[in-house]
């Protein structure tokens, strides 16, 4: 599976964080991976599981960074799609040295456009640009 497809699977799984407690997420991950028709390789499943678990553990830190770089918005007011995309992208920007900033931002904007509202791509892009600029 290509990186873009893996990233999209991680996004879909992370989206569930908004609807389930931290304690419920291991079971949700298991169910997601078992029921996904697109995931046939064990290597891909393990990669998605590890990435989701790592991002979920860092949500408080990621949300703090998002909140510090928004004006008039915070993670409690954002749409769930946009918030999930931002969490994934901020993780990639701050904690994954293998992904170039431009790739993380471009992928986040594309996912936001695909799953979010009409202006989601621009919203996500603006916040990520501010986070990158802040260093």
Identify the notable features of this structure and list them briefly.
single chain, 135 residues, mainly alpha, N-utilizing Substance Protein B Homolog, Chain A, 7 helices, globular
What's a concise summary of this model?
The chain has helices spanning about 5-15, 25-35, 40-55, 60-70, 80-95, 100-115, 120-135. By secondary structure, the protein is an all-alpha fold.
Shape: globular
CATH class membership: Mainly Alpha
Rg over CA atoms, rounded to whole Å, is 14 Å
What is the count of helical runs? Answer: 7
Give the mean pLDDT.
Answer: 92
User: CATH superfamily, please?
Assistant: NusB-like
Number of domains: 1
Q: What fraction of residues sit in β-strands?
A: under 5%
| Euclidean distance between termini CA atoms | 31 Å
Number of strands: 0
Q: What does this entry look like structurally?
A:
It is built from seven helices and no strands. The chain is mainly α and 135 residues long. It has a single domain (3-134), classed as Orthogonal Bundle (N-utilizing Substance Protein B Homolog, Chain A). The N and C termini lie far apart (31 Å).
């Amino acid at each position: 599976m290509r990186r873009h497809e893996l990233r999209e699977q991680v996004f879909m799984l992370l989206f569930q964080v908004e609807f389930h407690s931290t304690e419920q997420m291991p079971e949700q991950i298991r169910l997601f991976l078992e029921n996904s028709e697109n995931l046939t390789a064990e290597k891909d499943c393990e990669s998605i599981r590890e990435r989701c678990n790592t991002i979920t553990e860092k949500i408080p830190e990621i949300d703090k960074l998002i909140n510090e770089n928004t004006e008039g918005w915070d993670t409690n007011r954002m749409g769930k799609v946009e918030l999930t995309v931002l969490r994934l992208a901020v993780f990639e920007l701050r904690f994954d040295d293998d992904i170039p900033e431009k790739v993380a931002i471009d992928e986040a904007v594309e996912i936001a456009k695909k799953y979010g509202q009409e202006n989601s791509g621009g919203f996500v892009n603006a916040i990520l640009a501010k986070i990158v600029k802040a260093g």
